[in-house]
Amino acid sequence: MLKPQPRVTEVTKPFWDACNEGRLMMQRCQDPNCGKTVFYPRVCCPYCKGAALAWVEVSGRGKIVSHTTIHRPHHEGFVAEVPYVFAAIEIEGAQLYAQVPGAPVDGSSLIGRDVAVEFVSHGPDRKMPMFRLTEGAAT
Question: Mind listing the pLDDT tens digit for each residue in 101-135?
Fold first, then answer.
């Protein structure tokens, strides 16, 4: 069974196109008094309300700020993967949510652990960002 696919819009297309190319792109506010990284894709900055957002490639390295272990998936397409860790990842001041394949599912805390992005096939012509734990120490 196919997994649910993201809805690609004019606003989100640069993000999804970059994922398919193996790059992680986020928006950054161009207002010199703000300059914050923004995720999820939007038409204006949620911090200063400015309309000048530019797409920038980010490192794909971040830290887990929250997580849970999924035992009962929300869709049949994920049944073969349970249990798996789903986490909030902070990258350059913005948060995105993704699976962390290979992370321990024993309930131990992963908060503060370093992760790095990888792009995994998620259906026909679609790659999805996921994150792997790295050996770097939490700071």
Answer: 999 999 899 999 999 999 999 988 899 999 999 97
Task: Determine the structural domain holding residue 30 and report its residue range.
Answer: 8-58
Residue with tokens 């190319």: 21
- By the 8 A CB rule, do 105 and 87 touch? no
Cα–Cα dist 15/41, whole Å? 8
pLDDT digits (tens, 9 = 90+) for 61-81: 999 999 999 999 989 989 989
To 10 degrees, the CA torsion angle through 117, 122, 127, 129? -20
Q: Are strands 25-29 and 61-70 parallel, antiparallel or unpaired?
A: unpaired
Number of domains in the chain: 2
**Distance between CA atoms of 26 and 14, rounded to whole angstroms?**
9
Angle at the Cα of 19 from the Cα atoms of 6 and 66, rounded to 5 degrees:
75
| CATH assignment of the domain containing 126 | 2.40.50
